[in-house]
Structure formats: C-alpha cells, structure tokens
Specification:
Blueprint: E1 3-7, E2 10-13, E3 18-25, E4 33-39, E5 46-51, E6 58-60, E7 68-71, E8 78-83, E9 92-99, E10 114-115, E11 119-124
Parallel strand pairs: 2-11
Antiparallel strand pairs: 1-3, 3-8, 4-5, 4-9, 5-6, 7-8, 9-10, 9-11
Length: 125
Amino acid sequence: QVQLVESGGGLVQAGASLRLSCAGSGRPGARFAMGWFRQAPGKEREFVAHVSWNGATTNYADSVKGRFAISRPSAENTIYLQMNSLKPDDTAVYYCAASVFGAVTRFIANEYDYWGQGTQVTVSS
C-alpha cells in the first residue's frame, strides 16, 4: 500500500555531510508520520529522527541532535535527512519508515508500519 525508497547514501570521510532522501508512493491523498532508523552490523535497529505528518514537529535521538536534520518540505510523503559532521559511529544502513495505523510515542520500530529497502552510509576515519 505504501512504498518507500531511500537514496543518497555513500562513502564519506569523517566530518563530511550527506543528504538522504525518502520518496513515498501509494495511498494518494494520505499523509503519515515518518522517520529514519539505522542499523549497523550486529546491532539493533536504532531510532534516528522523526517528523510529524504535516512537518510541524521533529524528534531526534540524542546521538544525532545538533548534527542531523529531518525535513518534510511539502505536505507530500517525501522526507529528507541532512547529516552533518558525520562520525564513523554513524556508519549503518539507513531506513525510511512510515507510521500509518497508530501514533508514534516511543520512537521504536514497532510503531512504524512500512519500511524502505535501506541505503548504506559509510563514514571513514
């Protein structure tokens, strides 16, 4: 019903910047809260950032506050993640997610209903 496709990942040096994109499709006319998660090898999927359905509010993991910015520049289901001052610890597959069936209150993976395929971000030291 909802398809999410991430793009913009790559290999960069520490201190560099990247901008990830998530293009949503399906369910025309519907608008959903969306977010970004990341998962490094051998680790749990980790919350990164969230934006409300209308772009009015945002939430961030403590580890990325002040460095990353999530945005929804229009009312459409397309979001971005601007990542600045990247660190090797940011290396992970980054996933876009959409919450359709319930409210997001805990910023955990189970609160999101649809997921993209992921895009690899690698930060070298």
